[in-house]
Structures are given as structure tokens and as C-alpha cells.
Design a protein that fits this description.
The complex is a heterodimer of chains A (115) and B (112). Chain A has 115 residues and is an all-beta fold. Chain A has strands at 4-7, 10-13, 19-25, 31-37, 43-51, 54-57, 64-66, 76-78, 87-94, 96-97, 100-101, 105-106, 110-114. Chain B starts with 8 loop residues before the first strand and ends with a strand. The chains are: A mainly beta (115), B mainly beta (112).
Chain lengths: 115, 112
């Protein structure tokens, strides 16, 4: 089973460039999330989605955008990259039925450096 | 901000029980405690969660104090592959959904 797949695994951007981190899951989970992790720190929630067509901001949404046109895909867009966005980005998914949310399944991460 | 406090690092001998403490003194009555771990720089992996009762699964046991202000994750027979950063997390309600609030975690090193 593929689980949660993120691409690319590594990327170097110049300041001001834009890019999209891709995330796909094949578990038919309705919830999907984007986190960032800075060195030695825990994860910070950027955006999340409770289903196709629905997205909401997390703790640190500034400088990012998301869309959720299908259940499977949840891309994260960085506009006008800044050095502060240098981080490791994790996509995750979970089911939620009747208000009960299951465990998060994470991808392997995308390491982004902005120079 | 994180609602949990954990030691920065701990050591444990291989084959012994690893006991990882966590303080969450401001936890509310309906907020769950979750544990995840992150091996090297991989994506975090779910371990266990609980509300007020002790919980056990094939990976670990979770002991929550009666006042719910602290908990302990127990890995009963630690192996070298259990070396990882362990995160104690409180799940909080935000609007009509839930979010996991992550701290910096405990780096657990299992020694041969």
C-alpha cells in the first residue's frame, strides 16, 4: 500500500520563487493536513481539509495556499518563497466518522530550502 | 503553544522498559493525550492515545494519572529500533474540528 505520497522529496528555491508540494493518499481518508517542522521542533499545522472542496487554516498559514479538489490530493502552494519557509513539510491524512477521528498517517516529508 | 512538557532526552538499556513522562497540567476534561514517534527524519508514527483510562496496544502502554495532569508512555521491552523522538500531544478543539498541538518531544536513545 502506498499510503501518503509526497513529492518532491527535496527542493531548493530562490527567494521569490513559487512552487507546489504534492500530496496524495490512497486510503480514502476524508481529512488531510499539511505540517511544517523546523529543526529540533515539533510539527506546526499549516492548513487542513475535512473533505473535498473544504479547507481551513491551521497555526501558521501565512505564505501558503491549499486546494482540495479530490479526496485523494491535497497540494500545498508556496507563493513568493522566503528563507523563513526553509523547513521540512509533512502531509498527513486520517479518517473521521461520526466525529471520531482516527490516527494520522504521514508521508515521508519534503525538505525545502529557500536561498 | 504546546500544552505538554517533556524531558529533552532520555537513555534506556536495550531489553528494559522505557518510561517516558509527560506533563499536561492545563489539559481540559475532553482533551485527549496522543503519543507519536519520529524515527530519524521520517514521518511521525502513531503509537497510542487516551482520555482518562490507561490504554495498551501492541506497541506500548499509556498510564494517565487520575487528575489527568500527567501521563507516562511505557515501551515494555525497548529495542534499538525504538530510538526516536517521542511526542506527547494534546488534541484540542478548534472551532468545530480538532488539532494536535505538538511540543519538541523527548529524544529516546536505546543503548545496547
Amino acid at each position: 500500500n502506498a499510503g501518503v505520497t509526497q513529492t518532491p522529496k527535496f527542493r531548493i528555491l530562490k527567494i521569490g520563487q513559487s512552487m507546489t508540494l504534492q500530496c496524495a493518499q490512497d486510503m480514502n481518508h476524508n481529512y488531510m493536513y499539511w505540517y511544517r517542522q523546523d529543526p529540533g521542533m515539533g510539527l506546526k499545522l499549516i492548513y487542513y481539509s475535512v473533505g473535498a472542496g473544504i479547507t481551513d487554516k491551521g497555526e501558521v498559514p501565512n505564505g501558503y495556499n491549499v486546494s482540495r479538489s479530490t479526496t485523494e490530493d491535497f497540494p500545498l502552494r508556496l507563493e513568493l518563497a522566503a528563507p523563513s519557509q526553509t523547513s521540512v513539510y509533512f502531509c498527513a491524512s486520517s479518517y473521521s466518522i461520526g466525529g471520531r477521528t482516527g490516527e494520522l498517517f504521514f508521508g515521508e516529508g519534503s525538505r525545502l530550502t529557500v536561498l | 503553544d504546546a500544552k505538554t512538557t517533556q524531558p529533552t532526552s532520555m537513555d534506556c538499556a536495550e531489553g528494559r522498559a522505557a518510561n517516558l513522562p509527560c506533563n499536561h497540567s492545563t489539559i481540559s476534561g475532553n482533551e485527549y493525550v496522543y503519543w507519536y514517534r519520529q524515527i530519524h527524519s521520517q514521518g511521525p508514527q502513531y503509537i497510542i492515545h487516551g482520555l482518562k483510562n490507561n490504554e495498551t496496544n501492541e506497541m506500548a502502554s499509556l498510564i494517565i494519572t487520575e487528575d489527568r495532569k500527567s501521563s507516562t508512555l511505557i515501551l515494555p521491552h525497548a529495542t534499538l529500533r525504538d530510538t526516536a523522538v517521542y511526542y506527547c500531544i494534546v488534541r484540542v478543539a478548534v472551532d468545530s474540528n480538532y488539532q494536535l498541538i505538538w511540543g519538541a518531544g523527548t529524544k529516546l536513545i536505546i543503548k545496547p
